[in-house]
Design goal:
2 copies of one chain form a homodimer. Chain A is built from 18 helices and 28 strands. Chain A is α+β, with helices and mostly antiparallel strands and 581 residues long. The longest helix of chain A is centred in the first third of the chain and has 21 residues. The first copy, chain A, starts with a helix and ends in a 5-residue tail after the last helix. At the A-B interface, strand 2, helix 2, strand 3, strand 4 and strand 8 of A face strand 2, helix 2, strand 3, strand 4 and strand 8 of B.
C-alpha cells in the first residue's frame, strides 16, 4: 500500500474524502468532502482569506459558475481549452492521446495531433482498456468545458467556468470604480471551477469539479515594483528556475531537491531570476499560505515555466509544486504575470474600453491641431449629409489630418474631404494622464490538491507501545476538530463535568468533539488519526481538585491544568504549541 | 421608483449586486455579488453556520454541483421537476404557461397542461412578447435541470443539482457511521444549486443559479419530540396556518398581517397547529437566523402549506416568508417533515439498505421456527439441483412456511417443496433492535433571497439637514464594512494617525475601510448607504488629547473615546449597540 492509498483509506474511513455517488456506482473525477474534510477545507479557505482578503485588502466577489459563450470566446477557452483525444474502435474507450506516449517522448504536450497519432502507430501502442493494437482512430481536440443550455430550446449556450478568473476580468470597469480608479488593486474569488477531463485516473489529484481560490491584481504596466517589497525581500524560497531544468518532464518526477536553489526573493529579483518585485511578492504570499496550511517546506518548490511552456502573452510564470509519494511533484498554485492579455481581449470582443487613466502628478499642457470646418463650403458640397460630415470632422484627431485628403466615414461610406474646405487651429489641451490597459498578476490556487498534500505531508505512522499509531500532524488552525473532550470512564460523575467543559470551550470559539466510547487509549488513537491537536481528559482527580489533563497529539505529553484556565491555556497552545505558558 | 428599483440601484452603484455578464449584454437569472455583496453574503452564511453547524452540531459536508442521472431519477427530479411551458409561434418566445393565466384562476399550478391551454385559448390570452393572440402551441412540461455530459461523447448524462439535499441523502450510510449509528443526527451543506427557469423576470428573486443552505436531520420516525424543546417552547412566532388561508394565491399577496397569529411554539404544538416538536424547534431556529441576519420580525411570517400544495409524502410543511414591496410575501425558507421518502426511494433505486437499527434498551429474545431440510430425501428428489434447493430452504423466514407447500425459487424457477421433506425446529433468537428508515426534517434556506430581503428591510430614506440620506440599518455582524476610519482633512498629520488606527482595528478582528476623499459629511453619507455601523473620525483634537470620535450610523450621535480603548469600545458596541459601556 503506497502513501496515496493510505491517505485515501484514512480519508474515506474517517470522513474526510469520499468518492461521489458511490451509492450508484460512482463516476471518476468527483469527490465529496465528508464532515471532517469539509471542516478542514473551510479552515484552509479562511487562512487564504486571512492572507489575501484581510491582509492584502483584496475584496472577494462571487460570480456565477455558469457562463455565457461570448465570455469564453474572448478568454480563448472556446477555441483553445482542449486536450488531444483518441478513441479505440475495439472497445469504444476514449483516452488522452498524449498520455499514451508519455514513456516515449519527453514533452508530449508540445506535439501536434498528427504527430501524436504517428508515434502511437509507430510504437504499436496498446489500448489500455482492451489491449488491442492498431484500433485507434485519429487524434482530435476535445474541448474541456462542460456545456449546457440556458433556458428552453437552444436559446443560449452556457459553459461551466473553467476558472473563476473570467468573472473578475469582465467586471474590471465596475471594480476599478469601486476602488476609486486607482492602481494597483486586487480582487479575489473562491469557488467551483470545472474541467471535463477525458478520462481522469489520478483520484483526488485530477478532478472534473474542483475549488479554486484566485486573486487578480490589476497593476500599472509601467511600474511593477511592489510598495511592500521591503517587508518580504529577505524571505528565503526554494526556487527551481527554468535554466536549472534539464527537461520539462522532470517537472513531474520525484527526484528530490535536484536543481532547487534556496535564495531570498530580494536576490532572486536582483539576479533576474524572477521578472519583477510584484511577482516575487506573491511568491512569498503563496509560500506563506502553503506552509501555514500545513505543507512541509522541504517538500515545496517554486518551478519556473520554460519559455515554450508559458502562454505566449505571459512575462513570467511560476508554479508552486508539492512533492507527493505517488505523483511526484504536483502543481498546486500558478503565479503569473498575464500582462494585458485578458483585459485587451475582453475590450476587443465586447467593444468596451477597459483601460485605466494613469494620472500625471500635474496635468500636462499639450499643443494640438484641430480642424475647424467651414460650413459655408461644406453645406453646398454635401447637402443633406452636411450635418453628419461636420460631426465626423469635429471628431478627428491630429493624426487623421496628415494625408492628401481627409478621410471620414458617414453612414458606412468613406468620404474624402479636400483640405481647402476646412481650416486648422492650434489649441492647448490639458491632459490629466495616460490611458493604459492594466497588467494582471494572477496567483491561482487549487484548493483540493492543497488539501490532499496537507493530509499527505502531515501523515505519520509511528510505533507506540508495539502498536502502530496513525497521526495527522495538522496545524491547530487547520485540524477539523481542535479539542476532544474525553471522560476517562462512561460514568455519570465524569460525563456531567465533561459536558460542561464541552460547553465552555465551544463558547470560547474552539471546535470541540466529545467521545466516551472505548478505552481512553483507543480514543486518543482515533483523535490522533484525524489530527485533533489536543485532548482534554476528565478523571477522578478532576472531582477532587478541579483539574483536567491536556494531552498533546504530537509528543503525547500531558499536563494538568485548572478547569478555570483551560480555555485560555488551550487557546495559547493553539497559537504557540503545547504547554506554552 | 419602487423600493425594489431603489435597492437594486443602490446595490449596483455601491458594489453589492451586479447583473452578470453585462459586458456582453447579460442574461436573465444570473447575478454577481460585488465586493460588498460577497462580504455580506459570507457574513450571513457564517451566522447560519454558527446556528446550525456550531450550535446544533450538524457537520457540514460538500458534494459536487454536477450529479449523475440515477441520483435524480431516484429523487424524482428527472421525471417531476418541471414547469408547464408554452411557445408563441408568432415570435418564438417561451413562457411559463401557468403565469399567463395568473389573473384568471386562483391556483394555476394545480391545473393540468391541457386545462391551462384551454383557459389560454378561451380567454384569448395575448403573447406578452409580440402581442399576438391564438399563436400559442400546446402546453408541455419543461424539465428545469441544466443538463450536461460528463466525459467525451455521450458517455454519461449529468445534471446541475437542483438542490444540495441529494448529496446528503445518498451519503446517509456513511454519515450514519460517522455519527456512531445513533439517531437523531444532522448534516448541512451550503452551496450552489440551479434551476433552468423558462423565462425569469423577477430579478434577484428568481435566479437560475443560487445559493442554498440546507440541513437534513435524520430522526427516529417513532419519536418526533425534540430533546431541547423546553428551551424554545416559549418563543413567540408569527404563524399563518393553512386553516387561516382563504385561498392559496393569498400566499403571495401583500395584504399585511391578515390571518397571522402570534403564538408560542409550545402552544402551536399543543393545539396541533404544528405537527410535532421537532418541526416546531426548527421553525424557531429559522426565526432566530432570519432576525439575526436583519429580517424585520414584523415583515416575517411562517405560512403552512395547504394539504393539496404539499408533496404527497410530507407530513407538515412551513415556509418562512418575508414581505417585500414589489413581490409581496416571498418564500425564503422551507421547513418540512419529508418522512422516509428520500431514503426509501434511494434504497429502492440503488438496492442498498438505508435503514437504521433502533436498539432496544435490552435485546429481546424471540422464538422462531426454522426449517431443517432432510438431505436424504432432498438429494434423490432434486438431484443436481439439490444443493441449491438446500440453500434456498435454509434462507426461508418463518412466514414462508405457512402455506400448503413451501415455495422457493431456484435459477429463476419456482419449486414447490412438500412439507414432509423438511423438519422444523423452534429456536430462540436475540434481536438487538428494530430496523427503521429514518425520517428527515429539512430546513432549506434560499440565501440570495434572504440577502435581498435584508437589504430591503434595513433600507431607509431620511431627511437630514434638508437632504435625503440613504441608510442601511444592517446588524453590525452583517454589515460588509464594520468601521470606517476617516481623517477629517487630507493632511499628513491626520492621515498618519488614521493609518495607525486602521492597522490597530484590523488586528483586533474588525473589518475596516479607510476613506479620505470628499467632505466629512459626504463620507458619512457614503458609509450610511452601505450600512457601516460606526465611523471613527481623526481630527486636530486627536493630536492634542489622543481621542477620536465614534459616530453611530443610526442615531448619528457621536462620542469621543481614547485611542487606547477604541478597539474594545467598538467591539462592545458591535455586540450591544452604540455607546454601550
Amino acid at each position: 500500500m503506497d502513501t496515496y492509498e493510505k491517505i485515501i483509506g484514512l480519508a474515506k474511513r474517517r470522513g474526510f474524502l469520499w468518492n461521489s455517488f458511490e451509492l450508484y456506482g460512482g463516476t471518476a473525477g468527483f469527490y465529496d468532502y465528508g464532515p471532517l474534510g469539509a471542516t478542514m477545507k473551510r479552515r484552509i479557505e479562511n487562512i487564504w482569506r486571512d492572507i489575501y482578503v484581510i491582509g492584502e485588502g483584496f475584496y472577494e466577489i462571487e460570480t456565477p459558475t455558469i457562463g455565457i459563450e461570448p465570455v469564453f470566446v474572448a478568454s480563448g477557452h472556446v477555441h483553445g481549452f482542449s486536450d488531444p483525444m483518441i478513441v479505440c474502435s475495439g472497445c469504444d474507450s476514449a483516452f488522452r492521446a498524449d498520455h499514451l506516449i508519455e514513456g516515449i517522448v519527453e514533452i508530449p504536450d508540445t506535439l501536434s495531433a498528427p504527430e501524436i497519432k504517428q508515434l502511437i502507430d509507430k510504437h504499436d501502442i496498446k489500448c489500455p482498456q482492451c489491449g488491442e493494437v492498431g484500433m485507434f482512430g485519429d487524434v482530435f481536440d476535445f474541448n474541456l468545458m462542460f456545456k449546457t443550455t440556458i433556458g428552453p430550446g437552444t436559446q443560449r449556450m452556457g459553459y461551466l467556468r473553467p476558472e473563476t478568473a473570467q468573472g473578475m476580468f469582465i467586471n474590471f470597469d465596475r471594480l476599478f470604480r469601486f476602488y476609486r480608479e486607482k492602481l494597483p488593486f486586487g480582487v479575489t474569488q473562491i469557488g467551483k471551477a470545472y474541467r471535463n477531463e477525458i478520462s481522469p485516473r489520478q483520484g483526488v489529484i485530477r478532478l472534473r469539479e474542483f475549488t479554486q481560490a484566485e486573486a487578480e491584481i490589476f497593476i500599472n504596466p509601467r511600474d511593477k515594483s511592489h510598495p511592500r517589497f521591503s517587508t518580504v525581500k529577505n524571505t528565503v524560497i526554494r526556487f527551481y528556475p527554468a535554466s536549472h531544468q534539464q527537461n520539462a518532464s522532470e517537472g513531474n518526477s520525484g527526484d528530490g531537491d535536484k536543481g532547487i536553489i534556496e535564495l531570498t526573493v530580494g536576490d532572486a529579483v536582483d539576479r533576474g531570476i524572477v521578472a519583477h518585485e510584484f511577482l516575487a511578492y506573491h511568491l512569498v504570499m503563496t509560500n506563506l499560505f502553503l506552509t501555514r496550511a500545513g505543507i512541509d517546506p522541504a517538500r515545496l518548490r517554486f518551478r519556473q515555466h520554460q519559455p515554450d511552456e508559458m502562454a505566449h502573452y505571459a512575462v513570467d510564470c511560476w508554479d508552486a509544486e508539492v512533492l507527493t509519494d505517488r505523483f511526484g511533484w504536483v502543481e498546486v498554485v500558478g503565479i503569473a504575470d498575464r500582462t494585458d492579455y485578458d483585459l485587451s481581449s475582453h475590450a476587443k470582443h465586447s467593444q468596451h474600453d477597459l483601460s485605466a487613466v494613469l494620472e500625471y502628478d500635474t496635468p500636462k499642457q499639450v499643443e494640438q491641431i484641430v480642424v475647424k470646418p467651414d460650413m459655408s463650403l461644406i453645406g453646398p458640397l454635401y447637402k443633406d449629409k452636411a450635418g453628419k460630415v461636420l460631426a465626423a470632422l469635429k471628431n478627428l484627431e491630429e493624426d487623421d489630418l496628415s494625408g492628401d485628403k481627409i478621410s471620414i466615414t458617414v453612414d458606412g461610406e468613406e468620404i474624402l474631404i479636400p483640405h481647402d474646405v476646412v481650416e486648422y487651429e492650434t489649441v492647448i489641451k490639458e491632459v490629466r494622464g495616460e490611458n493604459v490597459v492594466p497588467h494582471v498578476i494572477e496567483p491561482s490556487f487549487g484548493i483540493d490538491r492543497t488539501i490532499y498534500a496537507v493530509l499527505e505531508h502531515s501523515f505519520a505512522e509511528e510505533l507506540v507501545d508495539k502498536e502502530t499509531r496513525n497521526v495527522l500532524r495538522l496545524p491547530p488552525e487547520v485540524a477539523p476538530v481542535q479539542v476532544a473532550v474525553l471522560p476517562l470512564l462512561t460514568r455519570e460523575e465524569l460525563i456531567n463535568p465533561a459536558a460542561e467543559i464541552v460547553e465552555m470551550l465551544r463558547k470560547s470559539g474552539i471546535f470541540v468533539s466529545y467521545d466516551d466510547t472505548g478505552t481512553i487509549g483507543r480514543r486518543y488513537r482515533r483523535n490522533d488519526e484525524i489530527g485533533t491537536p489536543f485532548s482534554v481528559t476528565i478523571d477522578y482527580d478532576t472531582l477532587d481538585d478541579g483539574t483536567v489533563t491536556i494531552r498533546d497529539r504530537d509528543s503525547m505529553a500531558q499536563v494538568r491544568v485548572q478547569i478555570g484556565e483551560l480555555a485560555e491555556r488551550i487557546n495559547a497552545m493553539m497559537r504557540s504549541g503545547f504547554d506554552s505558558p
